[in-house]
Design the sequence.
């Protein structure tokens, strides 16, 4: 049956007015995310003092109250990740944390568990942002570069491509990237590809040739050579160091 959006919206707005159950105002919500991304531990701790399940203003996304709370937890996790990325947290770190916390929330069986997890998640992100701000402050263009590299590890990303993406000249971007990250664009890209390869070697059944091709190395022998330079061991030896007795590892083919 087709949903009449205008009619449903009118009914909901009327119900909210009658029950005084309006959504949380935008400004306090923005204030919370701003405190997280700025690493303001004291403020976030204060804002998280009230249990997540006791906060008012939650929209009704599901009839089941526990599931509704889980949906709002997932929204918060996604928003926190995006705000932290905007402030310089590495793309992969922010989204991996978000995924892990959402998965943990899905296993919660009570509102109390979700509230405790929400507090832990927010403080985790906030503490990481405080440490990040101590160590480095990336400009908007460098954050764009880092996110672009993460999103395109399966391609050969060039400095010219990044310069075009950020609107900066190739020479200026190269100098700026080196100044802010401490390494050249090429070294940064290779290091991130090696990082991805390490995860694939540890947690997947992909062969070395598949990993090499997936991460856009010119050939398997070059991938092996570069991996050894950065890690001190060959990819095969690295995989053996982290082998697990699982069905997926038993089915590997080099």
Sequence:
């Amino acid at each position: 049956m087709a949903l009449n959006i205008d009619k449903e919206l009118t009914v909901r707005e009327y119900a909210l007015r009658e029950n005084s159950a309006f959504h949380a105002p935008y400004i306090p919500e923005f204030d919370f995310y701003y405190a997280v991304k700025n690493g303001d531990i004291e403020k976030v701790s204060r804002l998280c003092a009230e249990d997540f399940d006791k906060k008012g203003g939650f929209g009704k996304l599901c009839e089941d109250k526990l599931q509704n709370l889980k949906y709002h937890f997932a929204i918060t996790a996604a928003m926190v990740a995006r705000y932290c990325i905007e402030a310089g947290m590495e793309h992969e770190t922010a989204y991996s944390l978000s995924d892990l916390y959402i998965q943990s929330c899905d296993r919660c069986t009570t509102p109390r568990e979700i509230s405790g997890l929400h507090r832990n998640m927010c403080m985790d992100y906030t503490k990481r942002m405080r440490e990040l701000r101590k160590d480095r402050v990336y400009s908007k263009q460098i954050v764009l570069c880092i996110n672009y590299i993460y999103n395109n590890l399966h391609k050969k990303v060039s400095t010219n491509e990044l310069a075009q993406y950020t609107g900066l000249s190739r020479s200026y971007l190269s100098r700026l990237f080196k100044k802010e990250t401490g390494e050249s664009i090429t070294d940064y890209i290779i290091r991130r590809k090696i990082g991805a390869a390490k995860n694939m070697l540890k947690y997947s059944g992909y062969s070395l040739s598949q990993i090499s091709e997936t991460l856009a190395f010119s050939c398997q022998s070059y991938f092996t050579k570069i991996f050894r330079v950065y890690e001190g061991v060959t990819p095969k030896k690295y995989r053996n160091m982290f082998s697990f007795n699982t069905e997926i590892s038993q089915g590997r083919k080099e």
